[in-house]
Amino acid sequence: MYIKLLTPLDAKEYGELRLEALRHQPEAFLMTYEEVVDKENIIDIYREELMCENRLTYGAFNNKGDLLGIGTLQLGRQTKIKHKANILAMYVSESGRGLGIGKRLLEEIILKARSFQIEQLHLTVVSDNDRAKRLYSTMGFKVYGLEERALKLGDRYWAEEHMVLYI
């Protein structure tokens, strides 16, 4: 397995994994599968996203070159929040779970955040995603807030826990 910063050349594989994530874990992302799958230019949108200077998306690949996991480091742009960053869109494919991919992605993101002199890393996690919460806690993240009914899809609500890692 190896981790690398994704580029616009990875947009197709990135898009495929994002669609898988939206299908299998709709509660973990703001966009719905339906909002994304019908867009004709979604690969172009992902290419632009992968070029964004303050959003660094990392991918975990197996030895065959298959993209199995993703995670994004979003850096603060404004002066007063340049010491903080967010981790977004963490996802490991079902075929890659249990192999330490999420941990490796987080380690790489934390390392990169340190190189930017980031002092705080923030993320949100759906409160019933025990596997992700265990991983984040193991990596040193602490819960600092709970947002009830943070997400709604149809008649179902999900709470989100806000977590921070001081580095």
From TrEMBL:
A Pfam match: Acetyltransf_1
GO MF annotation list: acyltransferase activity, transferring groups other than amino-acyl groups
Taxonomy, superkingdom: Bacteria
SUPFAM superfamilies tied to this protein: Acyl-CoA N-acyltransferases (Nat)
Record-annotated N-acetyltransferase domain positions: 1-167
Claim: Transferase is one of the keywords in the record: yes
CDD domains the record matches: NAT_SF (cd04301)
Keywords: Acyltransferase, Transferase
PANTHER family the record matches: AMINOALKYLPHOSPHONATE N-ACETYLTRANSFERASE-RELATED-RELATED (PTHR43877)
Protein name stated in the entry: N-acetyltransferase domain-containing protein
